[in-house]
Amino acid sequence: MSDDQEHQQEEAFDIEALLDSVQDHDGYHPTSKTPSFFYNSTQVINDIKHVASFSLVGEPELDLRARWGLQMNLENHIGKYQYQSYLLDPFLEEMIAPLITPLRKVVHDVTFGDLKGQAMNEHGDLLFYILNYICKTRGYKTIVKFLPHEVADLEPAFEFLKRQDKRRVWETRYVLLIWLSLMCMIPFDLKTIDSQATKDSDRIPLVDQMLERGKTYLHCAGKDRDGASLFLARLLTRKDTCRVYLPEFVHWARNSLQSEAPNLIESIGIMGTLCWIFKLGQREVLLPIADQLEQLLVGVETKEGLMSNSTVKKYIVKLSQRVGLCLLKPRVAAWRYQRGNRSLVSNLAPDAVRQGGGAGKMDKVSMTIADEDEDDENFDVPDAVENVIERLMNGLRDRDTIVRWSAAKGMGRMSNRLPKEMADDVVGGIFELFSEDVFELPNGEPDISSVSEHTWHGACLAIAELSRRGLLLPHRLTEVIPWIILALKFDVKRGAHSVGSNVRDSACYVCWSFARAYTPDVLDVHVRKLSNTLIAVSVFDRDINIRRASSAAFQENVGRMGIFPHGIDIVTVADYFSIGNINNSFLNVAPYIAGFEEYRRYLSEHLVDVVITHWDIAVREVAAEAMARIAVLDLDFACKSIIPALTKNATSLDSVVRHGALIALGRTCKAVKAHSDIPVEERIAPEVLQAITQVVPSTPEFTLSGFGSEHTRQALCVYITCLSEAAWPLGDSANQSAVLKSWKGIVYTTLERIEEPLQKLASETFRALVGQYGITETEFEQCLTRIRPGAEYLGQRGFALALGEIDYRDARYSGYSTKVVEALDVTANHNSMVIRGAEIKPDAESRRNAINSVTNIVKVLGIDYKRVISHSLSNKILQMYFRGLEDYSVDHRGDVGSWIREASMQGLQTMVPIVARLDYHLAPSQADQCYLSDEVHTQVLAKLLQQSVEKIDRIRGAAATAMVAILYAEVDPEAEAVPVVVGNGAEEEMRREPEYVLRIPHRVEVMKVVEKSDEMNLIWLQASEVYARIVQLLHLPEYRAELLLGFVISAGGLTETLVRHSSSCLTEFVSSLPITANDIMDVDGTSITPTLTLVEFANEIQKIIDRYEGQDRLIVPLLEVLDLLFESGILLLLNHPTDFDFAPMVKFVRRQTIKCKDTRKLCASIRTFCGLCGLGGKIKNAILLELLRLLVHPFPKIRRTTADSVYLMLSGSVEEPTKETEEVGKVLVDTDWNLAVTQLTPIRDRLYPLLGLEKPKAVAPAGPGRK
Known about the structure:
Largest sheet: 2 strands, antiparallel
Strand order of the largest sheet: 1-2
């Protein structure tokens, strides 16, 4: 193999690992601190000098790994300044000079120098790549200033470019083209430079070659195409080349673009080149070809294949406007509006100063329109300009943003050179774009639901460009500002989404440009409309970028105008960050601004008319809360205007309007009632009060079912909740009875909905309704009936939640507590029931909701727990939680029992500290009134420890939270610190010695494992951390059984990561255990510390077997764990007959294989059998008989697994292999165990004598007369 081939086969490496190593050594973190200077300038410059120090010809001195490392390191340091690239400016010369100097040298050497004919190596490509990356970060226009542009470099650079294969890295070609574009600007005639040029010819061979080479790069789809466009434009616009070569290029471009099937990539390159030509060329040079370009554009617009590309359309608009600018004389419109004084100090100065003399005086002449007597009649406007204006006008309607933006800038530039009358026609044409497809509603308001958002966006951009240049004269503001205010609120729903965010953004840009273009006197009459609308959009718009854009426009107007009411006070609060969060913007910033009377009513009306009826449900909900907070600032206006308007909208047939109005009406009525110092009946008209009470009864039935009904029901629940909590007047007793009946009907039917959030909301409404207006005994019994077994499951879920929301401390309902808790206990039972001869399987959600309801009852009762809940009922609640912790039910959704276990743990977390504190304060004579004994305390912690090693991360986290809450629950959490003597007794320190309510053994050991810290919440979610910590608690006998059961479930599970961590911790722990108690005695014969022994561990395993046999959920993982323990040889240490009797375990494993069709269980049993064979003796022979029986199992997979396991067991035996065992191994390996059982039985029978076993005799089935 050659050296080149060896070099190509470089060592593979991990790019991600290398990138991580680069980032790890970077001390800069942009999220933590905004850069104010180039942090790593020294390191970057040193790295660049290091890269540039290697030879650029021949074999590269650095391998691929080193080059990639340097490249990514520089990218990491430079790329972070993409958005603050100006920070690089002081160091650009030091960065670029070390790169371009060796590149310039190698360009000369390999083209005309000593190394002529040789190729540049990968180091050179790396230098070009770094140069391109700096161009990308800072921009080529800045970087090109630091490139050399000597005459001697032109030919070598172009010759070097010709040698670049298109398969080579594009960064090299791009930088070369940018460099050549700079050298094309040298002021010398290219004939004097070209060594092949002749004096009697107009053509320059070097230019011919450059043009042909540049045209080839127009076919590329990368950045080198952009570099080629600039290079060709610089070359063609030179004085010594434009006369000959520019018409030829235009002719070639026309032929290429107007061919039958023009190439899209090449067309983009050609159009880009023409745009550059008309930007860089002189007008007298471009005028002769302007007409040809107009014909070219018309031809391109007929090509459907090109017009479907947004870049082509952008170039058409850009080229068209530049052709139009070429046709018009370079001039600045004298008729434009010119603002004179732009000093912020003068704008913000007191009126007396502004109106006085000196520097603060505003020159009225400078602020007026310039002299209009200019002779525009002699100004000739070519006919082609009309085509340009029409094309730009169509561009404002285009669907692509880049096209509209280019057309808007073109409109501003063109209008600046037009006569006043023609420019005024252009402005009028732009205004007409707003009125396209706008219809008038019966109330006189414009209907914009049918307009194009693209047209409005383009029109707003054009208006902004015109006003920024002073081309929108002041008398036009009265006509345009109403459209701009409408654009600021442009939000039209189309299908499942809305359009208009770009329109609102561009309207903010218009308002920003107004501040920079006009004086305060001009905008004074429009201040009220603009300020109110900008403030409303700043705080109430849905999109964060629109809120910030509107806020920026408002701040600009405040700073430059100084006439916006309370402008400084508002901009200090409504800043970039405060309005970034929608909740803070709606609920804090907006009420603050509404505190100013000038904005209060407009914000309220904007909420009612626009935001509360918004298409986004989240916006409607937060707007309703904002409405309530603003309404209390002016109660009279709220009662006379806001509440009547919301009441009217609450009965709308539009579901969106109805939803927002219902929520806002409920919250506003509640807030007004709470803040009113007089009865609301005196503030609100009687007919409005009556209409408010009739909102729910008058709700159409079709809105409560079907599509979208969940939103209506949600709003109704919020409405009923707010009015109930506010004790809103419902009229006379007859009206109140009818209203309450309709309210309860909504709540009861909503509790039967399938949506869980809706059921939860309805249960909270039930609480408010019952708490304020009560509930009859008949209704109570009906609720209990809905949760009993056999009831409809959706109603069971909802009413189970609702019954837990009642405050049973109330004397009206305390008598129902026993019935409710007992009914919820029955609902929470996960065991199937037989009702009327049919088996009823309980619903998982109903069980969870029942447990959560009981927990809520306990939480609300608090210190009144024992007054309402009896001892026996408390025990029933406790047993319900314990029973819930054993719920491992599964359905098609997976482990739905985890919901019940989590709810049960949350119940224990709530109940145990409350009851334990009450027990603690009992007198010794009241010991019989203690609800929780010491044994119960220990049992609670043991069951939570079991859940803390479960296989589901969420359950482990919930268990940890519950354990911390219970374990660290104090008798008096608010006890003050007391002085404690520390050290040698000379000093005292204030300490707080907590007294815990949970009475458990080994508290110190448990608290070392279950710590109270924020970091522990994450540790319990990580299997790699939790099992290693908690396995040590297996030494404590009080928690051992439950904890070991949890370990068995996790270590025998299916999740690879969980099994790996839990099983490794368990085996490592068990392997370190002493075999018997005698092994942990010291020399004096006393035990060192309470320690688990291997014999005790085996006995605990046997207890699990005896208790849970028949429950495959536990037995299958247990078999997997037994296989693991036998495979590691741990249980084989119990080889003495007096240590442990394995016979029951063998019988247990045998029972699992009889009539079993679960392949996982069978495979685990087979592997456990093979592990038990390591015990030897009679047990081994009995197990071998069972394994030989499984060799002819009906399932081929079981036969194969048995054969493989027996072979591995025999080959791994410590006994010396015999001829017979070798023959057995050969039979096991050579036999195809996929054959039929009838064919395999004779083969299996050959193994009995080889293993020294007697073949079992078939037992004849018992006959009719035999016993």
